[in-house]
UniProtKB/TrEMBL annotation:
Keyword flag Nucleotide-binding: yes
Domain CP-type G: 40-215
Organism: Homo sapiens (Human)
Taxon lineage: Eukaryota, Metazoa, Chordata, Craniata, Vertebrata
UniProt name for this protein: Guanine nucleotide-binding protein-like 1
Pfam families according to UniProt: MMR_HSR1
Length: 404
């Protein structure tokens, strides 16, 4: 079959696929999903070269990023091993991380589940809910301190692909494995457009696949909060803010004052618009002409706080609340706490500069304008000390072919 014939066949099959989906479900019920054939082709090409597939999910909402159809296709039709990487485990309590790990083991027995984060923290440090008002800048080590590379390599004898939804940390995982920045990362969904490859060792090739959204019936507000859909493209962000505020006390975490409250001590019912208006008032967001509170900009700012994990919305597996005590005392939870504490102790070489969100409106104003622009929004590149050894950056650099 020639290249032209293959592309023509793929296009016909893809159009039939879209037709069946839109014929079975109305556009109001369907979530946002990928309609670009070229992006799907990137997935197909990557699966063709794969020996083992890594599916990266966000630990805050892993089922949102886990398509069962892909699991059945990879493990069933292709007969490949599938490794589920629960990424960003520093954003969720250790007990919840372990509960999700066992949930996937129970429901998808052919999965190999690995925990990962590029920015481990010390879980022994008490977490103040008001810490949402502080922004942490990571300097120094960064990817060289990633939690999970050794566990991930033990789960794979050869890694050839990293695949997942947009904004779950696929590129950051590649950088964390290598120990330095080799692929570009961004908070903007869809930053990676074409698959990129990098040789971890002579016999282990990593491939960073573009993020791809599978069809689902998820609420679109949840997709926005999961970072799957670009915030800058949302025309009506208030529903997503209301979805967030109905599940975590946003107004309490941000110390907001109700816009209609004359007496601060009095209780007033909050709606999404009130929260956005109060946040705009606190941050000084004003419209250009009338100098009114810019509630649209405030809503976008709140959604970015949620996507970045500074307003953390974590979903629980079924039955977690009833068995929370069991998970907190689980041996794997204790092991995870110890591991995080060993990798990221308080007061280590990494410097953290914290600044109050209310200290400067201009900095986040620039982020609001630029974070979702094409070609911008790359995260700061962690630097290593001059003269550091290759083994310090890439823990697998000294492995021979027979040791991988």
């Amino acid at each position: 079959m020639s290249k032209e014939q293959l592309m023509s066949q793929e296009e016909r099959s893809f159009q039939d696929y879209l037709g069946k989906i839109h014929g079975a479900y109305s556009s109001e019920k369907l979530s946002y999903f990928e309609h670009n054939l070229e992006t799907w082709r990137q997935l197909w090409r990557v699966l063709e070269m794969s020996d083992i597939v890594l599916l990266i999910t966000d630990i805050r909402h892993p089922v949102v990023n886990f398509p069962p159809a892909l699991y059945e296709y990879v493990t069933g039709e292709l007969g490949l091993a599938l490794v589920l990487v629960l990424n960003k485990v520093d954003l969720a309590p250790p007990a919840l991380v372990v509960a999700w790990k066992h949930y996937f083991h129970q429901h998808y027995p052919q999965l190999h589940v690995v925990l990962f984060t590029s920015f481990p923290r010390d879980p022994r440090t008490p977490q103040d809910p008001s810490s949402v008002l502080k922004k942490s800048r990571r300097r120094g080590r960064g990817w060289t301190r990633a939690l999970g590379p050794e566990q991930l390599l033990r789960a794979c004898e050869a890694i050839t692909v990293g695949k997942g939804f947009p904004n779950v940390g696929k590129s950051s995982l590649i950088n964390g494995l290598v120990g330095r920045k080799v692929v570009s990362v961004s908070r903007t969904p869809g930053h990676t457009r074409y698959f990129q490859t990098y040789f971890l060792t002579p016999s282990v090739k990593l491939c960073d696949c573009p993020g791809l959204i599978f069809p689902s019936l998820l609420p679109r507000q949840l997709q926005v909060l999961a970072g799957i859909y670009p915030i800058a493209q949302i025309q009506e962000p208030y529903t997503a803010v209301g979805y967030l505020a109905s599940r975590i006390p946003v107004q309490a975490l941000l110390h907001l004052r109700h816009p209609e409250a004359e007496d601060p001590s009095a209780e007033h019912p909050w709606c999404a618009w009130d929260i956005c208006e109060a946040w705009a008032e606190k941050r000084g967001y004003k419209t250009a002409k009338a100098a009114r509170n810019d509630v649209y900009r405030a809503a976008n700012s709140l959604l970015r706080l949620a996507v970045d994990g500074r307003l953390s919305l974590c979903f629980h597996p079924p039955g977690y609340s009833e068995q929370k005590g069991t998970w907190e005392s689980h041996p794997e939870t204790t092991e995870l706490v110890v591991l995080q504490g060993r990798v990221g102790p308080a007061g280590d070489e990494e410097e953290e500069e914290e600044e109050e969100l209310s200290s400067s409106c201009e900095e986040e104003g620039e982020e609001d304008r630029d974070a979702d622009e094409e070609g911008e929004g790359d995260e700061e590149t962690p630097t290593s000390a001059p003269g550091s050894s290759l083994a310090g950056r890439n823990p697998y650099a000294l492995l021979g072919e027979d040791e991988c």
